[in-house]
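Extended Data, panel c. Modelled sequence:
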Amino acid sequence: MLLDLFKNKKCFKLVCGAGNEDAKEVEKLVTLYSKAGCNFFDLCAKPEIVDAAKRGLENAGIKEDRYLCVSVGIKGDPHVSKAKINKDNCINCGKCDKNCLQKAVLKEENSYKINTQRCIGCGRCAKECPKQCIEMTSEFKNLKEVLPPIISKSIDCIEFHALGEDENEVDEKWNDINNLYDGPLSICIDRSKLGNEKVLARINRMLERRKPYTTIIQADGAPMSGGKDDFKTTLQTVAMAEIFQNAKLPVFLLLSGGTNSKSTELAKLCDINAGGVAIGSYARKIVREYIDRDDFLENEEVFNKALAIAKNLVDISLEHMN
């Protein structure tokens, strides 16, 4: 069972990207990391992406102890946002392309455009644009329409990105999720806009309708910032987890946001009792040159090179969990 992974401190979650709608990439990532020992996968909330992940598990030949989670959020949450380039102001400098870890920026004749299927809303391109011609946009999604087709595919968890300041939208969507799904739920939250007290107040309110230890708190230190592999990058992850640990909530803790190969080591040094780690940007980055190949799933030599890298990350992360 999924929650047993957290009880035993053996959860490694690969974040494919809540906004990652590239089914082929998701299939490759799940195939690779499932083989490498990853047991939990975070996916975009679309039926075709769940299907792609299941193909990945089939490719890996692993049918047990692998779990799928879909992520949804509120309007303005970066995880469900997409970049949009104002071509009238674009000076064709290419900084957006250079800084996109997802390779979601496409070159056109006199400007660039965003491949929205690959864009995960990290905002790196917007931060680097010298003309501020890139904006991040998100659209309202009715979870009563989005979730039922996905739930019917026998997923194992739904993650709610409760980032943002609109308490009414948080409550409304949290109620919808709880009414639609009776399995384990995950709450992804950071303190960038709320501060510690408001974060805890929101979480405590959300937990009122949950049974003890049926909820995962994904302590998102610095969302989608795990491109580097050092202690500083993952520092906020551990600090965020400490807030929830000190509050003694009846939940399982998952390290996230700026996570890398140092995350569980730092958490252990700081006496953080996390049940697992979720790694996205860094986990995808270290195998990017391989999974972008068209022959990735067929070329055994290429796949095995990527597998060695992915397995090393999974093994190191889980080693420091115990």
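The chain has two domains: 2-78+142-319, 82-137. This feature is highlighted in the accompanying rendering.
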